Amino acid sequence: MTDLTTASGIPVPDNQNSITAGPRGPVLLHDFHLIEKLQHFNRERIPERVVHAKGSGAYGSFTVTHDISKYTKARLFSEVGKQTATFLRFSTVGGEKGSADTERDPRGFALRFYTEEGNWDLVGNNTPTFFLKDGIKFPDFIHTQKRDPQTNLKSAENMWDFWSRAPESLHQVTILFSSRGTPDGYRHMDGFGSHTYSLINAEGRLHWVKWHFKTLQGIRNLSAAEAVRLAGVDPDYAQRDLFNAIAQGDYPRWSVEIQLMDDEQRAAWEARTGWDAFDLTKVWPQGDFPRIKVGILELNRNPDNYHAEVEQAALSPSNIVPGLGYSPDKMLQARLFAYHDAQLYRVGANHQHLPVNRPRCPFHNQQRDGAMAIANGGAAANYDPVRSGGPATGGFGHGDAGWHLEGVAGRYDTRATDDHFTQAGNLFRLLDEEGKRNLVTNIAGSLSQADAVTQDRQIAHFLRADPAYGHGVAEAIYALANKG
């Protein structure tokens, strides 16, 4: 057994008994081992994530199986067969760190690629859409998913009041209350980058892209009743399933695929459909933009220490590498700031120094000092001299030519004229009869807890998506109200 020491390496002579004045005490302040032990214990928790607090993680690899180098100059895609180390954190969105893995909730799908050009973080969900299209409403939305400030209870009234006043949420609400709202663990669900991003090739040509991760284990979901049962008997169900599968060599895998459109295709599609290609509440129909295979993602190693490697993992969509880029997506633009800022608050100014966050390629910057500055630059200069002529690549980002901007700077509200209903209706019509019954039953169980005015406002949205959708929810709520 290894001899116990203090954090400074000093041997601990007795870890069972405090230093006291006589056998009964009191305890003496000069027992530094006792003091250090209690001080560290009081500080063992870092601030919980506001969202995605309950999560699981694993390491793995990404292998290129199809050549997409004509679309991107990113080196991780440079040749078929190339492998890149990865880390993936799954999570539920709305619950606290001690909440159940099986709650009805979107699931986070936050993937880091440790590339030779730095870390690329693709921070998405298990859904291709989201409830909002503008990040300015994100704090309001999350407050409705958390605890009411007076009762400290979750509030169905708050949730449905918000959703019913934001019909842009209808598509994601339909996904959430379908069977996919309670996936059977993390291995049996798809992942998505969700936002529109961009790829830039060696010639500087840009394509807009959406990322898809299709589970090779097959989609598997829990019934509403089974999800509730598991929340009571095994609230860590998804964590247990993922950890045990990897420990036993049953490595989960996903097919990595993309949808692409160039700017001419984007303009033509938007003119034909009236949908904004950068709107996070919309999908790109695969009939118009079929998926293209890229590679295989495999998870094959569990973390050695949950706190160090999963709790302190600090991902941000602002981390992209040359050949990859952003888009004008308003929600994405907000997340580019918010995620990194959250990690600075939660983990610290030097969170990138931690092993799970540190790039696996050489890096150099002029950042210095702050708490836990492990890689502090030594004698190297802590400034970069002024250089005339600007960046050698031109444009912005990693060598792409930039986006064409138009219009007057201002606050634009397009919600009154946007189509919030067609895609939600299309999804409803794609469900089989059992899927439709589950959807309306799941919605009714939650919406019935809201007041009548909120119910009517929300049912009107369902009716506009598809009459059978709205009537089904209304009838299910009526049946609940008259049960028995």
UniProtKB/TrEMBL annotation:
Polar residues composition-biased segments: 1-20
Enzyme class of the recorded protein, top EC level: oxidoreductase
The enzyme's E.C. designation: 1.11.1.6
Gene3D superfamilies: Catalase core domain (2.40.180.10)
Lineage: superkingdom: Bacteria
UniProt catalytic activity: 2 H2O2 = O2 + 2 H2O
Segments for region (Disordered): 1-22
Iron in keyword set: yes
Keyword GTP-binding attributed: no
Keywords linked to the UniProt accession: Heme, Hydrogen peroxide, Iron, Metal-binding, Oxidoreductase, Peroxidase
Record CDD domains: catalase_clade_3 (cd08156)
Cofactor(s) the protein requires to work: heme
Domain Catalase core: 5-392
Role according to the record: Decomposes hydrogen peroxide into water and oxygen; serves to protect cells from the toxic effects of hydrogen peroxide.
PANTHER family on file: CATALASE
Family statement drawn from the similarity comment of this UniProt entry: Belongs to the catalase family.
Designated name of the protein: Catalase
Organism: Massilia aerilata
